[in-house]
Protein: Btb/poz domain-containing protein 19-like
Amino acid sequence: MTSKFLVELSNDYEKLFETEIGYDVIIYAGEEPNVKEIHAHSNILCIRSQYFRTALSNEWAEKKDGKFIFKKPNIAPHLFIIILRFIYCGNIKLMDLQGPDILRLLIAVDELNIYSLISYIQEFLIKYQTEFLHQNPTEILETVYEHEMFTDLWNFYLEKICEEPKVLFDSDDFINLKASLLEILLKRDDLYMSEIEIWENLLKWCFAQQNMNNDPTEWSKEDITKIGRELHRFIPLIQFYNIEPADFFYKVHCYKDILPQDLIHDLLEFHIVPNVELKSDVIPSRKLNSKYQLDSTLIEPNHLPLFASWINKNNPLRYNRKNNSYDFKLLYRSSWDGIDPYFFHRNCDYKGATIWIAKIKGLTQLIGGYNPLDWDGVSYWKTTADSFIFNFTDRKNISTAKVSYVTSINSAVYCDSIYGPTMGNIICKDNNWSNKIYSDGERYPNIGIPTNFEVEDYEVFQVVKR
Structure:
């Protein structure tokens, strides 16, 4: 019975908000020309919000004709109405809002000290609006950082940036990132980039701050001093000893004038002198959280959590690079190891579960499949209910992915010494690829894989349970 009365009470207060009976507060929300007059009740606002208790006090609030006048130009009218509806009846609907509005709403409820909504909206953004967080990474990162109550969103977003750093580092506004935030990122031991990429992006950022070109032969002594001063705080955060010799020579040593001379000396010694011991103060390598670093020319790290979710038949939102339960060890790359099926079987037979990825010639399209069993050279069909094939129409965009689980389990995987990775309808015979339609129907539901196609390159990975 109690829950019934609470619903009735909530509905009555919502009617009070909508009918505006007895209102004594006039709120002007938004900026010209989009200002909206909203009516409310001071007693309800003060009971539900410490902010309004202060804002509507006699010492602060403006009064006219017995009504409080309250101006809030920095909160859009439609967002203020959402907040007031929550204050009155405890109801809030976020599904109809886009990511940018939800973030603005979060900022507004933080300003109004509505603490229960702060946690709720953060949870909603994390669960349903992760794609939005990729759209303006620098602006969003700085916004979240500026609000100390956004702890959950800050931790989540920082982890996402470390898992998929190109989202931020490849964005046009990366060079506008605040130095303090860049320092936080470079201190992370889970930043999933090679050290030379980190160094190159740091230089790109520094050159932009000083409005300088990247050719050290054209720098004056004053330029060297300025860029050296800009870099100073970041140098201890770069793991120079993890940079390959060729990259060190061509991409680090050429900037020796802006680096500490003792560091340059130690790095030269490290690369030239055999078996030299590392200095005791060298910072440890970043953690990749994986036994095998991804070695692929076709896919990127953000593909791996998606593969793991398909293997476990779970929601992809539950997976990221940290909680991915599989490693992917490269067994075979056709452009390296030889395109003939012989080389495929030599490298991949009897290795247990594998996932293969092929790039279709002339397109951005990737196709592939997961075989939870072994490959071998004996001619027969293998039975499993856990295999699947997949298709990315744009290999750079994982949101274009489609997956298709086996429906004819007796024809899930085909093994033969003259066949490459062959699964259901997908045939690879002597490197001639096709999506064949059998008389008994599709063995995997159609997901847009062409009928006949050429493959530029394909890779096979052993799927290793962590």
